[in-house]
Amino acid sequence: MSLFPHEMLREIYEQPEALNRTLALYLDGNGLKPEVAEPLAQWLAPNGEILIAASGSSRHSGLYGEILLEDFCGLAVDVEYSSEYSLRGGPNYVDLRHPSVMVLSQSGETTDTLAALAEARRQGHKTLAITNAPASTMANQADVSMTLAAGREKAIPATKSFTCQLAALYLLALYEGAHLGRISAGDLGDLISELRGVPGALEAQLDGWREQAEKLATRYAGASTFLYLGRGIHYAIAREGALKLKESSYVHAEGYPVGELKHGPNALVSDSVPLVVVATVDRKLAASIRRYEKTLQLLADMKEQGARVIAIANDDDDEVPALVADCIRVRPASEYLLPILEVVPLQLFAYRMAIEHGIDVDRPRNLSKAVVEK
C-alpha cells in the first residue's frame, strides 16, 4: 500500500517542508527581509485597529492572529466572518473605527472574502491579503499581499495551507511588534530562531501522531458528537480541530473555550459525546500557566463526571495523563507556536475518523476547495 493512500495524508506530511518554504519567503540570515518589511510599514492604520475577515479554516487562523497581534503588538483586533462583514450596513455604511483590514483565504478566490475585501476597499481601509495563490484576485486587489509557499493543496480539507497561515501571521506579528517597539532586537532574534525550529519539531512527531490517531479513531469511531475545548490562543485550534472532524468524517463536533463547557455544553457530555481538550502549557509564561491550571481543574471535574477525554499535552506532562482517557503528546514550545504543533495530530485524527467511516476524505460531500458563486 502507498505510504500516502490519500492526498490529505500526503499534505499533512508535507507540512514541515511547506513551512520551511514559507519561512524562506520572509526570512534571511539577518531576520525579516527588508523587501517584506517595506510594504507592511504602509499597511497598519494609525489608530492601531485591525479587522480580520475570513471564512472556514482561514477564520480560525484569524482567531490565532488576533491573540498574537494583541499580545505581541498591543493592537486592537476584531475577527469577522467574511460573509457577515461584507453585508454589514448598506452602500453608505462607514466603519467609524477605520481599521486596517486583513483577509485570509487559501485560494484567494473565496467569494465571501473577496466581497469583504471589496467592502474594505470601498470604505478606504488599508488592506492586506494572506493567500496561498500569489496570482489570485485577492492577492492582486489588496494593498499588501503576503503569499504562502504551501504548494498546491489537492484535498478539500485544508491542512498545510492552515499551518502556513499560522506561520505567516506569526511573522506579521513579529514585524509589527518590532516596528512598534514592543519587541526588542534581541527578543526578535530569539523568536525567529524558535520559529525556524518548528518544522523540524513537527517532522519528528508525525509518525507517532499518525500511529496514535489510528488507534484513537478505532476507539472513538462510535461517538456521535465531539466537543473540542481550548483556552486563549488554543481556542482557535479547538475550533479548527472540530471543523476538520466535521468536514472530513461527517461526525458532528463543536469547538468551545474551556471555561464555557459548564455554561451549557456540559449537558451533552456522555459516553457517546467525548471531549478533546488542548491542555498544553508554556511554563515560561505566567498567563499560560494560569490557563493550564484552570484546564487541569476542569479535567479533574470531568474525570469525576465520568467523561471520556482525549487531551493534547506537553510530552513531559505527568498531570494531564492521569486525568484523561487518552493523551496525545507534543513537544514543549512557546505559547504562540504550540498551536502549529497542536493542530497536526487533530488533522490526523480527523483523517483516520474519515477512514473509519468509509468517507472519501479528499472529496467530502457538498464541499469544494474554493467557495465561489456558481
Any overview of this molecule?
The protein has 374 residues and is of the alpha/beta class. It folds into two domains: 7-183, Rossmann fold, CATH 3.40.50.10490; 204-356, Glucose-6-phosphate isomerase like protein, domain 1 (Rossmann fold), CATH 3.40.50. It is 47% helix and 16% strand. The protein is built from twelve helices and twelve strands. It has helices at residues 7-13, 15-26, 34-40, 57-73, 82-85, 111-122, 137-141, 160-179, 185-220, 235-249, 286-305, 338-356, and strands at 27-28, 31-32, 49-54, 76-81, 100-105, 127-131, 144-147, 225-230, 252-257, 275-278, 309-314, 326-330. The strands form three sheets. A five-stranded parallel sheet has the order 4-3-5-6-7, with helices on both faces. A five-stranded parallel sheet has the order 9-8-10-11-12, sandwiched between helices. Strand 5 (100-105), helix 6 (111-122) and strand 6 form a beta-alpha-beta unit. The longest helix has 36 residues, at 185-220. The chain is globular and about 55 Å long.
What is the topological layout?
Blueprint: H1 7-13, H2 15-26, E1 27-28, E2 31-32, H3 34-40, E3 49-54, H4 57-73, E4 76-81, H5 82-85, E5 100-105, H6 111-122, E6 127-131, H7 137-141, E7 144-147, H8 160-179, H9 185-220, E8 225-230, H10 235-249, E9 252-257, E10 275-278, H11 286-305, E11 309-314, E12 326-330, H12 338-356
Parallel strand pairs: 3-4, 3-5, 5-6, 6-7, 8-9, 8-10, 10-11, 11-12
Antiparallel strand pairs: 1-2
